[in-house]
Amino acid sequence: xxxxxxxxxxxxxxxxxxxxxxxxxxxxxxxxxxxxxxxxxxxxxxxxxxxxxxxxxxxxxxxxxxxxxxxxxxxxxxxxxxxxxxxxxxxxxxxxxxxxxxxxxxxxxxxxxxxxxxxxxxxxxxxxxxxxxxxxxxxxxxxxxxxxxxxxxxxxxxxxxxxxxxxxxxxxxxxxxxxxxxxxxxxxxxxxx
Length: 193
Prior knowledge:
The protein is an alpha+beta fold. The protein contains 7 helices and 6 strands. The strands form 3 sheets. It has a two-stranded antiparallel sheet. The protein starts with 7 loop residues before the first helix and ends with a helix.
């Protein structure tokens, strides 16, 4: 979508942030400041404030980013079934980060960018991820945000495909479901009549 107000990278950062928590396995990839630094390094172009440059991360930063993660994950989990609730979460998260929209122009194209009103990394992450999810909802609809249909997975996803039929967070989960369905069909055919 050429004129969408989100980038694929910002949407992926939102999904990656939400998926640092794996509720079924009870795993958390944001337990330490070092893990936070790794996450931010992997998404460096999105959440770094160019004016302030790199800064030392603290336990407070970690706690604040984990709070942003809870909001982003809740939006991804609710959007398809409770769009108004997801919108309220997005609006509240953007308000807390003191997000401000700015109109930008580059290479004969105009777009809106949402920036944080503070230098906290959590505010930049909230402004980036929540505004990207808001733009997806506004341009493609809330059903494009979801939770994996895999029975042993609660991974989240955003479906940016043309047909909007994504049900699984990864190809691995889709393959597992396909194999399970195949085995189930074959097992039913093997039962005596």
